[in-house]
Design brief:
Blueprint (H helix, E strand, L loop, with lengths): L8 H14 L3 H21 L13 H4 L13 H4 L2 E5 L3 E5 L5 H6 E2 L11 E2 L8 H16 L1
Antiparallel strand pairs: 1-2, 3-4
Length: 146
Amino acid sequence: MIEISIDNSRVVAKFNELLQRTGDLSPAARKIGETLKESSQQRFESTTAPDGTAWATNKPSTLERKNGSRPLTDGGTLGDTIDYQLRGADTLLIGSPAEQAAMMQFGGTKSEFPNLWGDIEGRAFLGISDEDETDILSILEHHLNV
């Protein structure tokens, strides 16, 4: 499991304000989950990581085995498996149950994983971009003003 903590003081302050005011973060957390799910799926179209860097292009050994040249996009199945869950009152999880998800997120080497046909560079699709943080703040503001 990948754990990302938001250390943006404005976001944390808004979460705390919403918690103090309503005692229930779940409506806002569900909206944030939907937003992060969508932005993670969009990364398969833009082929960029949450920090805006472009994903590594496919190596020749990969191109020999697949039909397309865009990383992680042949069947579209990995992006389609991204979803979110609320756990308790204060935890939002976003990720993929797909077996290859962690390998694609972080990368790996053939020496570590002999079943690979070559080394795989990580291509981050999970995470929080600057735009995601702005969206999260907007969602929290909306729920504070309802």
